[in-house]
Design goal:
This protein is mainly beta. The chain is built from 1 helix and 5 strands.
Length: about 80
């Protein structure tokens, strides 16, 4: 069994205009998996993520705290 704790993963800080910290929790390198990845993103207050897509993967959004708006395809909704 393998496990990982978010607080043990060093985050990658991205600067403005999309200021946030990304932690790669589950990757092929640390878990030996092939078809999946999982990360967390902490967006600093007043900032946003850049618009992007993952053509070869699906993505799940799970908000633990805070609020904002999210756009998926052409649909925008509160988060």
């Amino acid at each position: 069994m393998k496990y990982i704790r978010e607080q043990d993963v060093e985050g990658k800080r991205m600067g403005p205009p999309h200021q946030r910290v990304i932690r790669d929790l589950v990757t092929p390198e640390n878990m030996g998996i092939k078809n999946m990845a999982m990360d967390t993103t902490s967006i600093d207050p007043g900032f946003s993520s850049n618009a992007h897509s993952h053509e070869a993967a699906e993505e799940i959004f799970y908000c633990l705290s805070g609020r904002g708006r999210i756009m998926v395809d052409d649909e925008e909704m509160p988060l």
